[in-house]
């Protein structure tokens, strides 16, 4: 297993490269006249962000946690697919095939996890991996993106929901509170399943469940307590709570505009979830996840709030531009979305390098 110590940073670098290129592709899709290496790049903004970046990172995190050699096939395959996207090497089958294989292995991982730790939260996270697999298989079989992207959304929503449920078990909420959570997840899955045949109805039910989930998390998540603490716990809580607000916003937009398959309302719906909710979660958990994968520790500093606040302000601008049909507002907001993410990565990279130097020199 020694070889894995050198491979893990490679997987992270591939996923970060996918994120950076996804941001660039997103700017081009918005309308910024930036150059790009191959003509398909603007079309793969979504796959780069969801499967190449998040799929690789999440599967790597699971593989590191369990630390069995075969499980590293998941980030390896998604990493190879990411590289194919980055270099424009795809005939329409290679990339979705590799991502499908990667997600199948992630599902197998969760089957083992659920066998060892049978609990609602592990089942929900396992359903998230299953949703990623279904989305990738639908992509492989050339389903329309507006239908398959809901499965990719479910991958992230369910994965995060399962993780939050696991952490909130320690609060000992009354049983009806957890029953409400279970009902919300069932409603979400019903809407997701319906979306395959009735896109409008399925999206609206699915979105209503996201709104309910956001309300539940806002009211009962442990972040309501940890935001009263200081330093890193307060910063993480701030990321989580603001992320829940964006999840609820995405839910409202989906209920109102569900079924749109393109255009500004569709953009607002997806980016409220992917940028507002998911990226907020990454900003919050990044100071924990990256060090745990790389085997280092990082120091907290208030500078972490700068990209987080910029992210939220820029997303308000972008979604306002979408809803008010003001293209310049949308352009500027979208550009600053990416700047906020890049700034966060630079800060994290600096902290990790500084931590490694301290380890190498023996400075405490």
Q: What would your notes on this structure say?
A:
This protein is an all-alpha fold and 364 residues long. The protein has a domain at 1-93. Helix content is 80%, strand content 0%. The protein has 13 helices and no strands. It has helices spanning 3-30, 45-66, 73-86, 94-116, 120-140, 145-168, 175-195, 199-220, 223-226, 231-257, 264-294, 305-324, 327-361. Helix 2 packs antiparallel against helix 3. It is globular and about 55 Å long. The protein starts with a helix and ends with a helix. The model has no long low-confidence stretch (mean pLDDT 91).
Which SSEs are present, and which pair or pack?
Layout: H1 3-30, H2 45-66, H3 73-86, H4 94-116, H5 120-140, H6 145-168, H7 175-195, H8 199-220, H9 223-226, H10 231-257, H11 264-294, H12 305-324, H13 327-361
**Strands, count:** 0
Give the overall pLDDT as a whole number.
91
Q: Low-confidence segments, ≥5 residues, pLDDT <50?
A: none
Radius of gyration: 19 Å
How would you name the oligomeric state of the polypeptide chains in this document? single chain
Distance between the termini: 28 Å
Structural classification: mainly alpha
Indicate the overall shape. globular
**Tally of separate helices:** 13
What is the makeup of the main sheet?
none
Give the amount of beta strand, in percent: under 5%
Helix content: over 70%
How do the helices and strands follow one another from N- to C-terminus?
HHHHHHHHHHHHH
